[in-house]
Structure formats: structure tokens, C-alpha cells
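SAMPLE LOG
Freezer: B-3
Tube label: C17
Construct: single chain, 94 aa
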Amino acid sequence: MPRALWNEQVIAETETFESVDGNVYFPPGAVQADKLEPSDHTSFCPWKGMVSYYDVVVDGKRNKNAAWYYPEPKEKAMNIKDHVAFWKGVDVEK
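STRUCTURE (predicted):
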């Protein structure tokens, strides 16, 4: 079962997920929302669309823009709408 950990805390865990470009995308209900804070940072993926980010915050430590999601993905990526993926030191176990 995939799970995401940072600062020795589980941030997300699920049996149901999407895998795209080698990344695990956790459904919104599998993510501990109290450990995510919205970021103003955005970027763009040519085939998935505009990317929004969260800071991961655990025990007062902040990992800026360590989680991302697609609030309005392009048609080909609708399966990951609002799903959350992690990077920047967040350990994702598959």
C-alpha cells in the first residue's frame, strides 16, 4: 500500500491511487490535509495542465512546495484531478 512520509510522519496512505510518469498520486481523502498548507507557487505541464502546490508541514517544520496537484487538469489527465503527489524529500513507499 503506497504511503508518503516526511519528518517521520505519515502524510498520505491508500490502497487506491493513480500512477503517472512514475509518481504516485494519492486521492484527496487519503492525504492528511492538516499536514498541507496551500502555496502560491504554480507551474505548467504541457500534457497535464497547470500545477498547484502545497507546503508539507510536520511538527513545525516546513517543506516548501513538496506536494503538488492538478485542480483543473487537461482531458488526458482527468484521472488525477485533485490527487496529490510528493517530492523534495518526502519518501513515497510503493
